[in-house]
Design brief:
The protein has two helices and four strands. The chain has 85 residues and is of the alpha+beta class. It has a four-stranded antiparallel beta sheet, covered by helices on one side.
């Protein structure tokens, strides 16, 4: 399981864009989100962490590696899409 913290993920549209980016990189990957804690958990089928991180960055977000066990306190950084604030 690969876990990223994506502090600039703010809404359902962000979830959709990140899902699309991950699926384009690894179509069989399983993706789960916790929008409140700004975490994305990915169970890849073929892609590695670096590939998935690059795909999320290319979609316009800033993922950082995280651990699955300890969720962090979400930080409010403002939205990137749809006028989220």
């Amino acid at each position: 399981m690969i876990v990223f913290e994506v502090n600039d993920m703010t809404c359902g549209h962000c979830v959709s864009m990140i899902t699309k980016a991950v699926k384009q990189t690894d179509g069989a990957a399983r993706v789960e989100f916790d929008l409140a804690s700004k975490r994305v958990q990915i169970e890849p089928a073929t892609a590695g962490e670096a590939e998935l991180k690059a795909a999320i960055e290319e979609a316009g977000y800033s993922p950082t590696s995280a651990t699955a066990a300890a969720p962090s306190v979400p930080q409010r950084t403002g939205g990137r899409c749809c006028g989220c604030h």
